[in-house]
Amino acid sequence: MPFAVLIATVAVAGCSSAEGADSGDGTVGTPSIVIPRTPTAVLKPATDCSQSTEPLEPESQMDGVRLDASTDPTHTSLLLQNTGSLSVIVVPDASFASRLVTAPYANPTDQASKAALNAVTNSGPLGPDRGLPAYVPATQVFIVPPQWAVCALTDDIREAAGVRYLRDKVSSAEYFVAKGLADQLLSRFQSNKARPTLIRCVKNTLQLLRAHPDLADVELYAEILGAESTCRAGYKELLGHDERATERTGTTVLNVLERTPRLLETTRLFEALAHA
To answer: Rounded to an integer, what distance in angstroms lies between the CA atom of residue 221 and that of residue 63?
Structure first.
């Protein structure tokens, strides 16, 4: 008998035996059916916050601050969107299980907002007076003004993403000044040309706040844009030393700044977690 036929015969015989197996009491057994199992998908940590669509309770533990929070199904991402009125500074959780990355899909896209934040973040390192732990790397310190967002990720599926954050008076004032000026200057100049002026005005804001921490908001802004300030000298030079254009720009920006939210003191660090 050919080999292939022999295998077929044995197979048929085996099937017939299974189907007609006698249990010994005269009952013919029913053949068992094996259903193959689909392998369970292996969960992986999120690689960004673009899938962080599961809403969490907003973070709002102090005046002027509201951070809308969301996560993904693995809870290894945490997207925080600043929908409050003042800037916050965000750093990783205390154990550094999470790392911070940008969230361009959740950020403003207008040139003035981008130029303003660029000036704030590139005006120099944050000093120890900002209430941040000294051991946090500069690359993991994110200034998040109103309408901006930040993304926290953990690379371990067993760890929920988390951050620490504080309300920051200095970066709030810096961003308001830079944004007010950017709205005026970028209608006439490319952002790369206006950038040195915006950075100068951000630095001027920091210097005045350090020298006069109790200065009222309106007085602070008037000093920054005043005739003797380094900020005014910067945008005057950018405007070709046109006195009328300089005066008009300063007045317009000051009127805008007088309507910005009231500056509040810097707070201690608070924690936020992508709750599992």
So the answer is: 22
Spans of the chain, pLDDT less than 70: 1-41, 276
pLDDT value at position 30? 46
At residue 134, what is the residue type? Answer: A
Residue 276 exposed, middle or buried by CB count within 10 Å (0-12, 13-18, 19+): exposed
Q: What is the DSSP letter of 239?
A: T
pLDDT at residue number 33: 55
- The pLDDT of residue 169: 97
Length of the chain equals 276
Q: Give yes or no for a contact between 146 and 61, defined as CB atoms under 8 angstroms apart.
A: no
User: For residue 16, what pLDDT is reported?
Assistant: 43
pTM for this predicted structure: 0.84
Whether the Cβ atoms of residue 56 and residue 79 lie closer than 8 Å to each other: no
Residue 121, pLDDT score? 96
**What are the phi and psi torsion angles at 8 (to 5°)?**
-60, -40
Distance of CA 148 to the CA centre of its chain: 7
**Residue 204 confidence (pLDDT):** 97
Cα 24 versus chain centre, distance: 72
Would you say 167 and 86 are in contact if contact means Cβ atoms under 8 Å apart? yes
pLDDT value of residue 17: 43
The answer to whether the beta carbons of residues 99 and 153 sit under 8 Å apart is yes
Give dist(CA 111, CA 132) in Å, integer.
29
* Side-chain half-sphere CA neighbours of 122 within 13 A: 14
- Count Cβ atoms below 10 Å from residue 216 Cβ, excluding itself: 11
Neighbour count for residue 107 (Cβ, 10 Å): 16
